[in-house]
Amino acid sequence: MKHSGIVTALFAVVLFTAGLGLAAPAQAELPVVDGHLWAASSVAEKRAYLIGVANTVAVNRALQTRRGKLDPNAPNNRFEKALNAGTIDRAIEQIDDWYSDNPGRKGDPVLGVVWQRMVKGR
Known about the structure:
The chain is an all-alpha fold. The protein is 66% helix and 0% strand. Helix 1 runs antiparallel to helix 3 (43-66), helix 3 (43-66) crosses helix 4 and helix 5 crosses helix 6. It starts with a helix and ends with a helix.
């Protein structure tokens, strides 16, 4: 990944959290993005979140490759494959559908939904 891609990913994550009013002092705990926060987010914020996750995972994969320790079956690499299998809008749709189908599980983290619906469900 190019340096500009990393900067773009970090910027997207910052915009996402700032857009939700979640920017906080460095010592504060980062909130877990769950179904409640997901539902309150705009499509642009959802896209930024997923792009940030995908870029973070891509950086991890690049580091594994550079160190000669790439494991295609590692959870991070399975996330990357699942997120790259379709479009960001399709991923948003799948996450939205999961929360719609499971209204009692709005407290479940979005990354857990991605794992269940997009990684394991493949």
